[in-house]
Amino acid sequence: MKITLKVWRQESPDEKGRFDTFRLDNIDSHMSFLEMFDVLNQQLIEEGKRPVEFDHDCREGICGMCSMYINGRPHGFQSGTTTCQLHMRHFRDGDTIVVEPWRARPFPVIKDLVVDRSPFDRIIAAGGYVSVNTGSPQDANSILVKKSDSDAAFDAASCIGCGACVAACKNASAMLFVSAKIEHLSRLPQGRVERVRRAVNMVRQMDMEGFGNCTNTGACEVECPKGIKISNIHKMNAEFFKAVWVSSEEVEA
Amino acid sequence: MSWLKGFFNSSIGRKFIMALTGLFLFLFLTEHMLANLLLLLPDNGILYNQYSHFMVNFPLIRIVEFLLFGSLIFHIIYALVLTYRNRQARPIQYAVRKPGENSSWVSRNMGFLGVILFIFLAIHLTGFFAKARITHDLGMVTINGVEMHDVYSLVKAKFEIWWFDLIYIIGFMALGAHLWHGFYSSFRTLGLRHPQYLPLFKGIGIFIAVIIPLGFAIVPIYFLINSLS
Fold this sequence. Notes:
The complex is a heterodimer of chains A (about 250) and B (about 230). Chain A is α+β, with helices and mostly antiparallel strands and about 250 residues long.
């Protein structure tokens, strides 16, 4: 396959970026999108040029590193997949593909297609955990969990923190990510204990990082590679209301 | 009271204000639309004028009116604040965008529709509300021995102008689109998450997004057609 790539290049967070155009003549249709970048980078190295920086780790769709905004969609047009699971056979011979990094003020570009997603880490650090050691996995029936709770928690827990929701949202809102973490933990007996301060602290941290506000467009849900539902955001809203208006628990301001 | 301040300065708290004020404005719209249907009665506006007279002189309605303008102002202020912050969250826009592939046009353009509605409201309020309530620049009529404003004749005269009707119909279309997303979106923001109720509210939202603008639009169309024949 012959592919023309327009890739965002940026030397450092403070410098202005630009698009570089590359022509690739020998792309195998079985390659993944990231393997195509490997080919491109090998070519650039052989030509003595600087290769394109991009994030990747597991290449099996669960690490959430590959933050590429491909032809106007996070992780490309294919639904329910990350960039490494997007294959070149879904493109046509001779296509021009535009690749950009995630665009959001809280996610500054470090270099080329690599963005800094540490705001997500700080949101997790604000409450996305269980404070006490709950020990090794429990015996199956020692702590009973309703099937519906277990399913909902598992669905939410499948969030890989890739940031596609932020990238897709017209407001660069991180609410899908934050709500998935809140839902995951507050549905389970070990996490439920801290649900009040978790909701308040994680939402506060999210706001402090400078993410936008949800307008229920539903773009995040469509673009999420793990199928996290937007209903998690509505559950988070309810969780936050309860924490602020109903709970008698004192939460540090 | 720091928790209260914290709530209303949080992203979710701000959305909460948008949702609540929006729903209150929707309630008012429903009342306004139903009352407007009195204009269609073939009684030369007697009942409509009596209704207007009652609304202006009933103290409870005066209080509700403050709530209504308050809601409108807060809805606009918070919309501006949220939009500003949303823009701030993405200083560099993507070069290639395909938003239509993951979300509806209406859901992405509530602010644009809001601006159209704001312009429409300015025209509407100066045309009717200001005349009836501030400048008292309209005729009088005596019904059952009570002298009152002849709002009916003002409405009739205005709606016989075709381009004035056109402005109204454009306004109603923007209103329908705004309600289409706004109604059920507000329930989502308020945290209503029941898997069976949410689709129901979406259905009701679409229904009201059609029925309310239609109910409003009947009135100018009725007067225009009557003036032609």
